[in-house]
Fold each of these.
Amino acid sequence: MSLLDTLVVTTLPLVPKSIVRRFAGPYIAGESLNDAIEAVKKLNRQGISTTIDVLGESVTQPEKAQQYVSNYLKVLDAIDQHDLDSNISIKPTQFGLGIDTDLCRDNFIKLMDKLRKYDNFVRIDMEDSPFTTLTLDLHESISAEYSKSGIVIQAYLRRTIKDLEERLIPGKANIRLCKGIYIEPHDLAYKDTDVVRKNFNLLLEKALKAGLYVGIATHDEILVWDAMRIIEKLDLSPDQYEFQMLLGVTESLRRQIVLEGHKMRVYVPFGKDWYAYSTRRLKENPKIAGYVFKDIFNLK
Ligand SMILES: Cc1cc2nc3c(=O)[nH]c(=O)nc-3n(C[C@H](O)[C@H](O)[C@H](O)COP(=O)(O)OP(=O)(O)OC[C@H]3O[C@@H](n4cnc5c(N)ncnc54)[C@H](O)[C@@H]3O)c2cc1C
């Protein structure tokens, strides 16, 4: 990132919400469920599967978590009614993990009847490190109840290799592998780009060799090519893995992966609580400064 980009990223909290919303437009489907349905239909027509995510996290009141449960029940109905090729992803703190682990688990259990009825899949997103162990525990408890569930692991965390070897491989988990997005201390997380990439590849190869289904979640061309090499070396069939990307990011790379015959799933977030997710995405955009200046000076 250039100095200017870094400057824009650090001053992002000072940028008015209305402007952040405009910059973040491409990363979110919109504020309503209908917006998400339309975005999913468009992707499905291109042969791309999706994951619908109701935006929201760090809930501090049980009633708010309950609202999110209701929203997800509506999402599951809509996926069935509109015959969408989509599953769902949920942040544990959105269902109350920051309040109480039992409350959070109970909220997940409230989705089970509908998940069973529609035979759909639920992914538990991974948040920052205070929640890693709790999320692994939650996933074990949920997957014991409902097998069509999965978890996320982060290649930047030093502990992840152990979590994979000692818990996820023995448990035959369905995993999404990503680099990780939260700001973590050096003693918990690798900071060097190349080390994170090497760990990503190590985790990917170990998981695939052990027969886990892996969602390879990255927009990093180097990692995508490394993944393709590992897939070829292990002679995997297309039903043993998928690539995953976020809405609005690196669409040309996404098209190329699809053209090469790999399964692709796009994460489609929607909802009124878009701010935290949007600022994380903007901070990852390597051209953020250009974006901001174009907008300020109204350049096309
Ligand atoms: C489907 C999916 C689900 C995820 N779930 C989680 C999760 O549960 N927990 C978690 O911690 N993290 C999650 N992440 C985020 C992930 O951890 C990374 O922060 C994110 O994917 C960026 O890392 P990267 O591998 O794409 O590499 P990067 O090096 O960040 O990006 C590679 C290239 O992609 C492009 N790019 C990346 N981001 C942007 C952007 N915002 N705008 C424009 N271009 C961009 C740039 O060209 C960049 O050089 C998820 C990511 C995906 C794809």
Amino acid sequence: MAIDNANCLPPSTPMASDQQPLLEGRTVSKYFGGLAAVNNVDFAVYPGEIVGLIGPNGSGKTTLFDCLSRLQKIDGGKITFKGRDVTRARPYQVARMGLSRTFQSVRVYRKMTVLRNMLISHQWRDTSLLLMLRPSPASTASRAHQLLNFLQIEHLAHEDAGHLSGGQRRLLEIGMALMPDPEILLLDEATSGVNPTLIETIKDRIRTLNQQGKTFLLIEHNINFIADLCSRVYVLNYGEKLAEGTPQEILQNEAVIDAYFGA
Ligand SMILES: Nc1ncnc2c1ncn2[C@@H]1O[C@H](COP(=O)(O)OP(=O)(O)OP(=O)(O)O)[C@@H](O)[C@H]1O
Ligand SMILES: [Mg+2]
């Protein structure tokens, strides 16, 4: 697999080996009937890293995100976040602790304005619909505008989200995930369905956020995007961890090449 990462800034700083992981999974497993969607997977993401999660279609990447964000109960193993055991936590609890995610199929309220989507997402961590729909304070609106400006979609604040392009919707979803000011963002295929110009915008924004201290775990099929941003990459195949290493190591790994292109 050839990569083109000329003219790119260096990828995110590798972790210091004595640091405690921000997010860690030990022998995480998730079964759907007889199918092991995630099977005994160990991984760790350290503060300040941008880590890639790749693998062929159906290899368990999204299921692992669902387990980490606690949308799916796991059938085996342990998940820790900020040193705390969150194996049995509810989604709103890990969200309150500082974990946000986006979805492979973008989840925005298409008939609400971009701004309203941002305001509602600030209340995601609340447990009742009534709390979610309460009026937002001025400081929340101000944060929403600042983030929309940062993501270069402020001019669309009063448009219905359904009118946005695929790439603009991905940017909006990243903005929604940023509203609660998380420590780690899990982005599931942030470049899927996005035109090359907006892919560069997303890449640049992730890099800036990372420089400001945010940690990222990125599911991607876009290998150049991973190679440009990530210091480390995990590869899943049939639910199992096939490899881990730097992007260069992964791209030269025979087993990984085989998994992607077949024997
Ligand atoms: N809710 C579910 N019920 C049953 N099987 C599921 C469910 N969710 C996922 N699977 C199966 O688990 C396996 C892993 O799926 P998953 O969506 O996690 O893969 P993925 O690596 O994200 O794939 P892609 O790159 O296509 O998004 C697949 O075989 C899928 O069909
Ligand atoms: Mg997926």
